[in-house]
Amino acid sequence: IRYCRINAILEWREWHRHRMQSYSEASARYTQMPNEHYVPELERFAPKQTGNKQADSAVNSVGGAAVAETSRADVEEDQRIVYATYEDLLGRGVPKEVARINTPVSRYSKMRATTDLRNWLAFLTLRDHPSAQFEIQQYAKAVGQIVQTLWPRTYALWEEHTKYAVTLSRSERELFKRWNAERNVVMSARSSTACTSSSAPT
């Protein structure tokens, strides 16, 4: 199964951690890079809250909106300057492989990723997950829609047994078995009492 997409470089770096996929990315050594950059939504620039690895949506907090707006504007300006420098270097005849030296990870790039269905499901398990970085979660959801369309039964089983499944530790499993056994004893006793009552003469 081959998936072709234009993503920001930062997302590809996350994607490349899946070693069971093969990749083919457009080379900036031979073709000029497009003037296309990823700029996150304003909420992504909100000040990070303590205790969370990912950015939190605090754009409505005191001072949060101003920080987010200023930060987003700074990123956009930096991207403009970097690409203007890149074009200027190309205009001077500097080789593309050298002119790209300051390329930020927000620059969009085109890549093909190929693997089998089993490894796409492994990709979804890790990336279509609340703990994954927001950006790659969006691409994982897109991959999930493709898998669901092509293999609806397989996707439904993955949702049932992996995505929405609950894993118990050994001690939790033993506790559940003990609780269930005690529950069965109580239910059996109630059933016996009910049968005795119903068979008694009136």
Describe, in plain words, how this protein is organized in 3D.
A three-stranded antiparallel β-sheet has the order 1-3-2. It has helices at 9-15, 64-91, 96-99, 117-127, 134-150, 152-163, 170-199, and strands at 2-8, 22-25, 108-114. Helix 4 (117-127) packs antiparallel against helix 5 and helix 5 (134-150) packs across helix 6. It is built from seven helices and three strands, in the order E-H-E-H-H-E-H-H-H-H. The model has no long low-confidence stretch (mean pLDDT 86). It has 202 residues and is mainly alpha-helical.
Task: List the SSEs and their pairings.
Blueprint (H helix, E strand, L loop, with lengths): L1 E7 H7 L6 E4 L38 H28 L4 H4 L8 E7 L2 H11 L6 H17 L1 H12 L6 H30 L3
Antiparallel strand pairs: 1-3, 2-3
Helix pairs in contact: 4-5, 5-6
What coarse outline follows from CA principal-axis ratios?
elongated
How many helices? The count is 7
Biggest sheet details = 3 strands, antiparallel
What is the helix content?
A: 40-55%
- Rg estimate, integer Å: 27 Å
Give the percentage of residues in beta strands: 5-15%
- Termini separation: 73 Å
Physical arrangement of strands within the biggest beta sheet:
1-3-2
